[in-house]
Each structure stands twice: as C-alpha cells, then as structure tokens.
Amino acid sequence: MHGTQSSRLMWRSVVLSCSFSLVVITSGESAEPKIQIEKTTSQTIPLQKPQNSSPTIGILQNITESVKVPEGTHEQIAIIEVGSKFLAGMRINSFCLNPSGQLLAACGGERGEIRVFDPDGKRLETWKVPIVPDAINVDQDGMVYVAGSGKLLKLDSHGKILMTREAPHAKAVKASNAKLREQVVQQMKSRSSTVSSMVPRLENMIKQIKDKDKTLTEQDQKRVLSYERILEQYKQMAKAENNKKAPTDAQIDAQVEAMSNQKLRVSSLSANEKEIFIACSAIKGYGYDVWRMDKNFDSPSVVVEGLRGCCGQMDVQCCTDGIFVAENSRHRVNHYDRNGKLIKHWGKRDRNGVEGFGSCCNPMNVAVGRAGEVYTAESNLGYIKRYSADGKYLGFVGKVKLVPGCKNVSILVSPDGDRVYMMDLTRNHIIVMARKSIVPTETSDKKS
C-alpha cells in the first residue's frame, strides 16, 4: 500500500482484525521497502537484501525458506528494463504480448506511452497515448486495447489510435458521486473509532502472551516487542485523531476525488475474438466487478460482481472457454463462462507447499496458454505454476527473483510455452523465464 498515513492505517486495521499472527507482518512502515538497485544488464540480476528492511520482509522470507521449492520447468534468463531508467517518472503498469511475439509495455507517470520491445528486450518503438494507461491487451488480429484515466482506447498494430471511448464503469462512478460522498463521510467518522479500539485490543494481546508463561520463548518476546511498537503507533494516531476537528467540505471533496480516481482504475483488461473484459473496483462497496463489451466498446454489462481482491489488484483473462479470474483474497482461481456463470473454482491457502497458494493474497495473476492450460503467478513469493482448465495441478514452472510485496505481477506465456514473462512493478522491469533443455519431473514436492 502507498499513500498517506491514513491509508496505511486502514490497511493495518484490516489486517490486525483478520489474524493474530499477521500483526507482526504488518509492523513495518511499508509493504514495499525502497531498495537500491544495482545497474542492470540483459542478464538476470541477483536480488539484493534490503538494508534496514522491515519485519515484514524478514518474516515473509522465513516463510518462503520453510517451503521446499521444487525444480521448475523454466529458469530466469534475463531482465527487460522498461520504466524510469529511460525517462524519469515513467513506470510500467501493465504489459501484453502481440501475435508477432513483441512485448507491449503500458507505461505511465504524468503522461502515458506504450513501449514496444522484441522478445530479447530491445526497444523498437514508443507510442504516445493521451491517457495514463492502467491495463493493456491485444487480440489475435494485433489490435491493441488500452484502459486508463476512465477511458478505453483501440489502436492498430502500429500504434495508431482508432477509437477512444469513456469506459462504462467511469460513467457509473460519476453517476454515483453522491453515494461516494456518503461513503467518505462514514469512513472519516469510523476511522477515529477504529484507531481508538485497536489500543485496548493490542494491550490485551500483549497481556495474553505475557500471562501465558513466566518464561517467554524467544518467539514470544519478538511478538511482544513487535506488538508494543504497533501499540505505540496506534496511541499516537489515536491522540492525533482526537485532536482533529470535523472535516471540512474541502477535505471531504478531496477524499471523494481520491476514491473516484481509485474506482476509475482498471486492474486488468483481456480480449478474445469477439469481446473485451475489464476488471475494476465495484461502484458500491470494496469488491471488484468484471465488465464485458464488444470490440467497439459497445453493449457493456457487468457479468461478475463481488470479487474479493487485495492491493488494488484483480486479474481477469479470457479465452474461447470463458474467463479465468485470480481472486487473490480467496486464494483461488475462478472459471466463468462469458456471461459470468461460475463453471468451477479451485485453490486454497497453503503456506507449507506449492500446490496451493501462499503469502497473504494469491494467486495475484493468471495467464492462459495456447492449449488452454492456466498459469498462475504469486506476488511476494515469485512462484509461477501451471494447472489444467479444470484446476488439476500440472507442475511448477519456476520461481522468479522478485522484490517482496503484495502487488500486480502480470504474466504472459509465449504461444509455444517456451518463454514466460513476469512483471516486477517495484524494479520497473519484466523478468524473462525460458524452458530448460532438460525438463525436471516433480516427485515429492507436493507435501513439503
């Protein structure tokens, strides 16, 4: 999570209320620490251990180290630099693969552009676009579809803009402005209550540990220390909240605008032969919806509602068999038909193996191979796995070297399956995985 102290506060409050053990994981100031990245080349770069890293990273590293990771079918061979190294303030937000095997990276900052790379990472072209793109995809004919700033664009294979339309969910967001204002006011009223209520809860949690045994274990001592740090932060925030005056209309308007901008964002976009699907925040509440429309952006309708996602991410990818959604907060993949009827879902939370999905919210992203197999990507862990369309585990693809954090880790698979690409938002690049010459056979890694 990024943003102001209040946004971090809301995230911590939710996590603390979900699980006793997760309090330690949220004790750091940020889920994504700033890391000094060494100069990159076309070869794989070893991940540097963060200096002064938060307890979040250390604990998550311990979790991943406790899992025996099987040998994958692919290995990391290169990194494609995409973002601000070329132009300050320009970051990769999404990417796709066109029929020619070129990578199209949707980049945004104060302005937007699409950067085109060959499979080996050589930059070929740069297309300027009049929006800051959130999501991008391409159909089998090479037509490019881009979403961002509340708009949808259609481009030809050379980057010429053929069509611009207001996104259907943007119209709905504007129409619900009064409802958003009510929601913001309610949030502001409840925020102070939430902060104050966390103080006695944390004090009680600390007391329970200390009363458990006269001699605390090393793990218990670490928990107490972490809880005490969080408690002090909540006390300071509670004091600040109590000293605040009632929010002004200008403050409420600013919050409404921020919420509107968040709801305008498109988490993912996918295109098949006839239709386009986008995933975005629900107009009401905090879930996610999936919209379907034709390739001229006409006849839009919501086909899936109430999806649960974390960190502003919900990935939907379509194929001839319908759509696959990585519902990360439920640790599962959902398979729907084009009308949004649930066909099947699979997955479970699994911190001790690789057949399920680990960390706090995974799988974060999905991709569909040519044969209809489903690839999943897990943020924080860097795992890529492969399943049949009905959810049967087919094997471990590989583990990428990824900066830990809960975030969008979009993946793409080449038509022949020999290459798999994963996006690393933190380091602003695309990681390239290639099939090994000798493919390993998984044996005893399912129950590690």
From TrEMBL:
Residues 202-244 form a coiled coil. Keywords: Coiled coil. The keyword Coiled coil applies. One of its GO terms (molecular function) is zinc ion binding. The keyword Coiled coil applies. PANTHER family: E3 UBIQUITIN-PROTEIN LIGASE NHLRC1-RELATED, PROTEIN LIN-41. This is SMP-30/Gluconolaconase/LRE-like region. It comes from Gimesia algae.
